Amino acid sequence: MEHQFYSLLLREIRQETPDCVSLEFEVPVSLCDVFAYRAGQYLTLRAEIDGEEVRRSYSLCSAPYEGRWRVAVKEVPGGRFSTFVNRRLPKGFASGEVRLDVMPPQGDFVFDVDEQSEGFYVFFAAGSGITPVIAMLKEGLYRESKSRFVLFYGNRTSEHIIFREELAGLKNCYSDRFSLYYVMSAEHPGSELFYGRINKEKCRVFFSTLINPEEVDDFYLCGPLGMIEEVEAVLEEFSVPSGKWHKELFTVEGAAASAKQSSTVEQRAVARALIEVIIDDEIFRFEWDGTEDNIVDAGLANQIDMPYSCKGGVCSTCKAKVLEGEVHMRMNYALEEDQVEGGYVLSCQCVPLSEKVVLSFDD
Ligand SMILES: Cc1cc2nc3c(=O)[nH]c(=O)nc-3n(C[C@H](O)[C@H](O)[C@H](O)COP(=O)(O)OP(=O)(O)OC[C@H]3O[C@@H](n4cnc5c(N)ncnc54)[C@H](O)[C@@H]3O)c2cc1C
């Protein structure tokens, strides 16, 4: 049951930096297949916080080969879930005491291992964006023994570098195949090139002096929208085909309202529709009458356990395939072009444009 929550015991809560903790889950043997994952995927966690259900997604920072399930949560000032995890979950508890609801791994921002490959992969991360990236690096370095990896990792200061020791360990272990460059915005690292944020100017220098983008098989970007846009702009300048770079965003502030207001297609949304959804092999039907904002909310209002997490078009927990009918998707920061062409949508961003819509969450 891919879309249901399982109550998992926490094995450990570890303070990674002053504002980031990592949580390791205990996955019973009977659930190991359900929770099998690819490096880069995320878990959706659910908790009741002050009487309200809150769900958020967190990338696995463990690698599949380690046989562990660990996520890292960086505290966002004023953020509901991240503050709950960082401040309210008891650290150093006796194992077996704390449980959280966890949905099995999801997401398409993944590193596909090919053990015979002699690949060259370049990663850009900032802040908590390191979580899926370190999983990919660990898995890749361990399983692709002939491939090379480069990481550019942006943070405010060295104190904020998440997984600093683990990254140093990878550097020691794989010194001939792994290059690591820290970029710091609020602490001078002794070199102008690595002082500031990862931006276009720095990327141009990286691509002219440290790596040759023509030799790179794949780029992986994870961090704030600003960093991703700057790196993408330079990848375009250097004529890197878009199929060679992969990205994941954690949040897009303020995008929802503008996307809704500016859309003219939105006005074609039908007033009434029959919505059919297939979730874990079960079919559910409900009426769309325009009172809810989107198909996920309409399903929830009809007591259907719709899969979702961010409700902001950023994660892909609500990804579904349109099997019949037409919908309008307001925003999409998660699906790649070929997925959209293949009929996939983020249902939390969809309103129906036809009188019948069939969506499969299982495809
Ligand atoms: C696929 C995916 C994977 C993710 N993986 C991780 C991960 O590994 N580690 C991790 O720490 N987070 C990760 N996130 C982000 C995480 O899901 C939450 O969005 C984040 O923890 C904030 O949730 P919150 O409830 O604390 O804040 P909210 O209460 O949702 O937000 C409070 C305020 O902070 C802003 N905000 C929300 N998120 C961020 C952010 N990340 N940075 C800056 N401002 C923000 C909001 O716009 C809002 O104004 C991931 C998100 C996605 C979609």
Radius of gyration: 21 Å
CATH class of the largest domain: Alpha Beta
Average predicted confidence as pLDDT: 94
Alpha plus pi helix count: 8
| CATH architecture descriptor of the largest domain | 3-Layer(aba) Sandwich
- Give the overall silhouette: globular
* Number of spatially distinct domains: 3
Side by side, the strands of the main sheet go 4-3-6-1-2-5
**Any low-confidence stretches, pLDDT <50, length ≥5?**
none
Biggest beta-sheet profile: 6 strands, antiparallel
N-to-C series of helices and strands: EEEEEHEEHEHEHEHEHEEHEEHEEE
CATH H level, superfamily name of the largest domain: Nucleotide-binding domain of ferredoxin-NADP reductase (FNR) module
Percentage of residues in DSSP E strands: 25-35%
Descriptive notes:
It is a single chain. The protein has 363 residues and is of the alpha/beta class. It folds into three domains: 101 residues, Elongation Factor Tu (Ef-tu), domain 3 (Beta Barrel); 129 residues, Nucleotide-binding domain of ferredoxin-NADP reductase (FNR) module (Rossmann fold, 3-Layer(aba) Sandwich), CATH 3.40.50; 106 residues, Beta-grasp domain (Ubiquitin-like (UB roll)). The protein is built from eight helices and 18 strands. The strands form four sheets. The chain has a six-stranded antiparallel sheet, with helices on one face. Strands 9-8-7-10-11 form a five-stranded parallel sheet, sandwiched between helices. It has a five-stranded mixed sheet with strand order 13-12-18-14-16. α2 links the parallel β7 and β8. It is globular and about 60 Å long. The mean pLDDT is 94. Flavin-adenine dinucleotide binds next to β4, β5 and α1.
